[in-house]
Amino acid sequence: MKSTASLFRALLAVSMLAGCSSYRPTPAAFHKMLEQPYRLGAGDRVRVTVFEQDGLTNTYNVDQSGYVSLPLVGAVPARGHTAQQLEGAIADKLRQGYLRDPDVSVEIDRYRPIFVMGEVGAAGQYSYVPGLTVQKAVAIAGGFTPRANQESVDITRDINGKVITGRVVTSDPLLPGDTVYVRERLF
């Protein structure tokens, strides 16, 4: 009876330690997102050019609800669309009584920011640039603190409307809107 109780306590201790480790392997969707075309989201800024229409050519923000508001046509859905899909949507709206054959071009002017938290010199919000890796983002945020785990970090990413967190190495690329959390090392 006494050995059963000590076995039970040992199993309980092991299960509690396993729960404390909070290891989250990287979901397969993390790396699949890197191969897909960029999808617009709230916080992005796009440059819309309508050929021979200076009044419509301008820089527009994607608002919190995921729309871009243009003169004449109003709100055009942008969240989850690529720049090419947004071009088509704007052209379709302009064809509805405003322009006969609009030639629209959309390019990303500014990506939504990334956030770096945890054991870094200056946690906060930073501008995203294409080609940004975890290591570069940490460098922008003032580098690792002496207590930082420099092997891997946790990234929280919105994948198809679902917020997912996974652990990655510092050489992994980031996407706009990612949140990087640098953990404290154990020893």
TrEMBL record:
Looking at the record, the residues that make up the Soluble ligand binding domain are 114-163
Entry-linked Gene3D superfamilies: wza like domain
Name of the protein? Polysaccharide export protein
Q: Which residues form the signal peptide?
A: 1-18
User: InterPro entries per the record?
Assistant: Poly_export (IPR049712), Poly_export_N (IPR003715), Soluble_ligand-bd (IPR019554)
Which residue ranges does the record assign to the Polysaccharide export protein N-terminal domain? Answer: 35-108
Keyword annotations of the record: Signal
From which domain of life does this come? Bacteria
Pfam families, alphabetically? Poly_export, SLBB
Q: Which organism is it from?
A: Mesorhizobium metallidurans STM 2683
Please name the GO terms that the record assigns under molecular function: polysaccharide transmembrane transporter activity
